[in-house]
């Protein structure tokens, strides 16, 4: 059992950790001042790659190609870069106990890590069907996707069951991206989800109709309005059938489950204030405990433009919140301060030849614009959300860089809309004028 002390510890080795380390390095840290502790065996990487390029049948993305911070066009921090910058990268190390009052963390191996300032960047973990007691959910080849080890299991299963049958449980972005990846790998894919349309937390019925028809045209079967209620397995333990609550059953060589995630806050329960399922922070990602910050998926922070506390599970926020926390820490040390975090929510996803971006808030009435015909070889359409006469959210499939920038400006400026009909008619040119 060893004891080590650092001025700063970043707990977690995901997207936020990578961007926090980059910000520390660019502001300057002395050798031995900063440690990144991660239970993963690899240096921080851009997690979104796992459900996209990582699963391509040819030319698949592999590390070190997508270490942080390439996702935002920044410097790639290879494992050796941390050492060169004086940062200690402590991998394959799970912290199992945190004592925020004593400023210490204890690993599964019993090592103790002391800090002066802690940044919690533990992210989320997937919800598992076994947590809900679904019968047979522990069968082999029922897979989840969060970390690179999970992605390797998916790749292994794709290779072992070449051209087989896959059932994807869940209709969120993980379900949509995984269904596309499996289809591209020549699997016979069926998606199953309980809601009336895919991505219901963001998409309107109109937007979802485009993606569902596009997917169907690509050969993905979609079963809505029911859930997987049980699984049966071959004698070797591998899944072979999914039972649906509506009485149907589906053959399956692989099942991928994407039914949501929960923030990893358990280590800190009772020690720090929480809000909306996450660790409550201020606009500098400071928690209720002195010298403890929380960033990325675990943070519930003030979303200034909406006057509301939110938790955001998306990569853009994980990058920006990490940078904000480190800037605030460094500024405070010099007796200064940084501006409050003023975040514009931004999400994106890519699958098949599709690529969409969304900015702002999806509340109020919505209108569609452009060509949302799924048979068009280059679909380009969008949507606006209007609340109290103002455009508060903007979405576009197939937008150019400039068009996406214009949408971001709209969502930030929240301009008045004459009418929903006018917005439909003007389409992207409405955004271009802002
Ligand atoms: P994470 O990146 O999850 O990192 C958390 C880290 O903490 C992990 O390394 C974990 O092992 C480590 N950790 C946790 N607990 C401990 C412990 N006790 N001890 C040591 N280490 C610990 N967002 C988008 O906007 N667009 C996308 O297209 C998109 N695609 C995605 C695809 C996939 C497959 C996944 C899983 C997520 C995707 N996201 C996407 C969401 C985005 O990746 C997350 O919001 C982001 O990674 C959150 O960053 P984070 O640093 O908070 O958490």
UniProtKB/TrEMBL annotation:
Domain Monodehydroascorbate reductase 3-like C-terminal: 344-431
Keyword Oxidoreductase: yes
EC number: 1.6.5.4
UniProt keyword Flavoprotein, yes or no: yes
InterPro entries tied to this protein: FAD-oxidoreductase/Apoptosis, FAD/NAD-bd_sf, FAD/NAD-binding_dom, FAD/NAD-linked_Rdtase_dimer_sf, MDHAR3-like_C
Cofactors (names): FAD
Catalytically driven reaction(s): 2 monodehydro-L-ascorbate radical + NADH + H(+) = 2 L-ascorbate + NAD(+)
Enzymatic class: oxidoreductase
Alphabetical UniProt keywords: FAD, Flavoprotein, NAD, NADP, Oxidoreductase, Redox-active center
Domain (FAD/NAD(P)-binding): residue spans on this chain: 6-321
Family matches, as Pfam families: MDHAR3-like_C (PF21791), Pyr_redox_2 (PF07992)
MF terms (GO), sorted A to Z: monodehydroascorbate reductase (NADH) activity
Similarity field: Belongs to the FAD-dependent oxidoreductase family.
Protein role: Catalyzes the conversion of monodehydroascorbate to ascorbate, oxidizing NADH in the process.
Entry protein name: monodehydroascorbate reductase (NADH)
Source species of the chain: Brassica campestris (Field mustard)
């Amino acid at each position: 059992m060893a004891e080590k002390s650092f001025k700063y510890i970043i707990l977690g080795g995901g997207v936020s950790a990578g961007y926090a380390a980059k910000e520390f390095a660019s502001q300057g840290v002395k050798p031995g001042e900063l440690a990144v502790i991660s239970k993963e065996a690899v240096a921080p990487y851009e997690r979104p790659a796992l459900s996209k390029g990582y699963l391509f049948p040819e030319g698949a993305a592999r590390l070190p190609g997508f270490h942080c911070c390439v996702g935002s066009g920044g410097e790639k921090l290879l494992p050796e870069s941390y050492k060169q910058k004086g940062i200690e990268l402590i991998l394959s190390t799970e912290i199992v106990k945190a004592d925020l009052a004593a400023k210490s963390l204890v690993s599964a191996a019993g090592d103790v890590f002391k800090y002066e300032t802690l940044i919690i960047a533990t992210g989320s973990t997937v919800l598992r069907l076994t947590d809900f007691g679904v019968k047979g959910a522990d069968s082999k080849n029922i897979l989840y996707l969060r970390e690179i080890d999970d992605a390797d299991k998916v790749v292994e299963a794709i290779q072992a069951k070449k051209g087989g049958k896959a059932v994807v449980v869940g209709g969120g972005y993980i379900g949509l991206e995984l269904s596309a990846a499996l289809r591209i790998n020549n699997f016979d894919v069926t998606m199953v989800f309980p809601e009336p349309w895919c991505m219901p937390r963001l998409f309107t019925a109109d937007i979802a109709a485009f993606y569902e028809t596009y997917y169907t045209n690509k050969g993905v079967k979609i079963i809505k309005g029911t859930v997987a209620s049980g699984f049966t397995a071959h004698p070797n333990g591998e899944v072979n059938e999914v039972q649906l609550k509506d009485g149907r059953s589906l053959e399956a060589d692989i099942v991928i489950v994407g039914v949501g995630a929960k923030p990893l806050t358990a280590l800190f329960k009772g020690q720090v204030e929480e809000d909306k399922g996450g660790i409550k922070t201020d606009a500098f990602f400071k928690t209720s405990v002195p010298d403890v910050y929380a960033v990325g998926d675990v943070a519930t922070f003030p979303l200034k433009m909406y006057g509301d506390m939110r938790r955001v599970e998306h990569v853009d926020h994980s990058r920006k919140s990490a940078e904000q926390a480190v800037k605030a820490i460094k500024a405070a040390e010099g007796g200064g301060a940084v501006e409050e975090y003023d975040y514009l929510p931004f999400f994106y996803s890519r699958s098949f030849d599709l690529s969409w971006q969304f900015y702002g808030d999806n509340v109020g009435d919505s209108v569609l614009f452009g060509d949302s015909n799924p048979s068009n070889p280059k679909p380009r359409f969008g949507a606006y959300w209007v609340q109290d006469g103002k455009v508060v959210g903007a979405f576009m499939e197939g937008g150019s860089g400039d068009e996406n920038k214009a949408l971001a400006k709209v969502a930030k400026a929240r301009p008045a809309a004459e009418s929903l009909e006018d917005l439909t008619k003007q389409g992207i040119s409405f955004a271009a004028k802002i």
